Amino acid sequence: MSAKPNPSKAQDVPQFVLYGEAEHHDTLEFLHLEPIATRSRSNGWVIKAHRHARLHQLILVFSGAVTAWVDEQEHHLDGACCISLPPGIVHGFRFAPETQGVVLTVAQAMVTDLADERTKTYLDALFAQPEIISFSSSSAVLRQLHSNVQQMMEEFRSINPGRQLLCEWLLQTVLLQLSRCVATQRHVTETRAPETQHMQQLRALIEAHFTNHWKVEDYARTLNMPPARLNRMCKTIAGKNAKALLQERLLLEARRKLIYTRATIEHIAFDLGYADPAYFSRVFQQAEGVSPKVYRQQHDAMKELEDGAGPG
C-alpha cells in the first residue's frame, strides 16, 4: 500500500502561501510561478495535504503523471492536465518522478482585480469549485498554454520594465483559456444559460454563509427567485434539492475538521454554527452512519496503516 500525502494525525492540516512556507503580509499582492520539480523533487515527488487561504492555485502538468487528493477525492491523472484549486481546498499530490509542469499561485484579490464586466463570469467559473482539465498531447490549447506560461516564467524571473503588467496580462490570458476548457468539459457555451449562472452564484453564497445556517428561503431571496424555482434548478443541475446542497457543504467541512484537525467535537460543532453539539452529532450520524467520534477514530486508524506502509 502506498502512503497518501496526508498530514500526521496529530497535526492540523497545514496552511501555506507556498508549500512549506508560512503566510506573510504580502499575500494580497501575491503571484508566484515555479516548476513542479522545485518543491516536489526534494520531497520524493510527494506534496503532503495542505491548503492555502485567499490563494488560487493551478497545477499545470505538461508531461508525466500525478495522483491528486482534492478534499476527499482521489484522482489518477496521466499526461497533460490542469488542476484548478480555489482557496481553502485541502489538497496533496504524488507526482511521477521528473513530471514536467508548473505551479501557478495567485492571490484571490489579484484575480478579482483582473475580472471586469467581460471576464468576471469566466474567471468565477474557473474557481467556483475544484476543477480537473485533461488535454490530449496534440491539443492546440495545450500548446498555447505552454507558450504563455513559458513567457510568464521568463517575465517573472526578469527585471524588465513593465514586468508586472505583462505578467498580469499573461495571467489573465491563461485563466481565460482554462475557463474556456472548463466550459467545454461541462458542455456549456460561453453564453451561459441563466440557470448555470445562478447555480454558480448559489455555490458562492453557500461558501460564504453555510456556517450561518441560512435557510433555502434566504438563498432564494438573495438570488431573487422563489424557493420552488431554486429547488428545481438545483435538482436539474446538481441532482439534489437546495437543502441537500446546504447539508452537503456543512458535512464536507465537518469531515475536513474531523480528519485534519484535533479540535474537539464541541468546538467543531460551534465552528460550524451549531449551538448544540449533541444536535450536530445526531445530524452527522444520520448522514454518515457513524458518530463524529467514531468517524475520526476510523480515519486515524486508516492513516496509521498508511503511514506505516511507507512510500510505494
From TrEMBL:
Keyword Glycoprotein: no
MF (Gene Ontology): DNA-binding transcription factor activity; sequence-specific DNA binding
PROSITE patterns noted in UniProt: HTH_ARAC_FAMILY_2
UniProt entry keywords in alphabetical sequence: Activator, DNA-binding, Transcription, Transcription regulation
Domain HTH araC/xylS-type: 200-298
Residue ranges that the Swiss-Prot or TrEMBL entry lists as coiled coil: none
Pfam family name, one: HTH_18
The protein, known as: Helix-turn-helix domain-containing protein
Organism: Salinispirillum sp. LH 10-3-1
Lineage: Bacteria, Pseudomonadati, Pseudomonadota, Gammaproteobacteria, Oceanospirillales
